[in-house]
Here is the input.
Amino acid sequence: MGKRVQVAPPWVRGPLKHGSPEDRGSADRYYGRPYNPHWEWYGQTCGGRIEKDQMTAEEIAEYDRGYHGETGEKVWSDPEPRIEEY
Here is the structure.
């Protein structure tokens, strides 16, 4: 693992806070994206993306928890038309 570049601010850490490792893992799984540990931080004037080689073991575990814990799935097409029986 590489040297830590960016420390996660306290407001971005925690279960399913927007941009947290767990939130990004959950979103990746929900939208059918491949497993790719990362997280994102947002500020008033800027933001950034932290890739796996910059993440701590704890952050990767949080991403795993979100990715493997997600049970929903985005439905990308309209549902089959319903046939009404009279």
Q: What stands out?
A: The longest helix spans residues 57-69. The mean pLDDT is 80. The radius of gyration is 17 Å.
